[in-house]
Amino acid sequence: MQTPNLSNISYLLLDMDGTLLDLHYDNYFWNYYLHQRYSEINLVPLKKAKTYIDNELAKEYGTLNWYCTDHWSKKFSIDIISLKKELSHLIRYRDGSLKFLRGLAKTSINAIVVTNAHPNVVKLKNTLTRLNHWVPDFISSHAYGLPKERREFWAMVITNRNLDVSRTLVIDDNISCLKAAKESGITYQLSITKPDSSRGIQATGEFSAIEDLSTLSSEVSYW
Fold it and tell me: Can you list the domains of the chain with their CATH numbers?
């Protein structure tokens, strides 16, 4: 599959974490920091905390609850957003994102950030990065009651936003989300090979992929 030319795109649906922002923040929080802080707060061994948290997270994988900070705050009896704020210094743009967004703002492309992040996480990240300055239009899957991994989610977005699917591109590091978008009828999908700056390259299967958005910056700079 070829990387689509942005001159053929009217609607650009951009993932937030792993596409625009560094996924290292989220991976570190859910895979390490939450275990550590749960252990400290509840005075339980770290190994026991890790086993418990990982088992509970696994039960909700692929569902909207997996992304819901309210759900996990209640489940773990801990303020997830407060803990996330403790790591806020790790919230940052991925290489190439800001340059791309500056160019994108000068085009006629209708850009929307489409994320599985809970609205309170979106608020936190917008406060720190001002991402909503560059792309004011946000869709959180929580408003639709389904995660982006579901074809029905994308079908609702297409209908509610009156998208021309033949001129719509979804950029996302989550392959399951791209598959669902494709199944919904959206013509173009593009993946990210290195969503987490601290990890290596990830496989993207059937989808064309770029390492970061700087690859597309030259296209928007000519508009």
Answer: 6-22+93-221 (3.40.50.1000), 25-89 (no CATH)
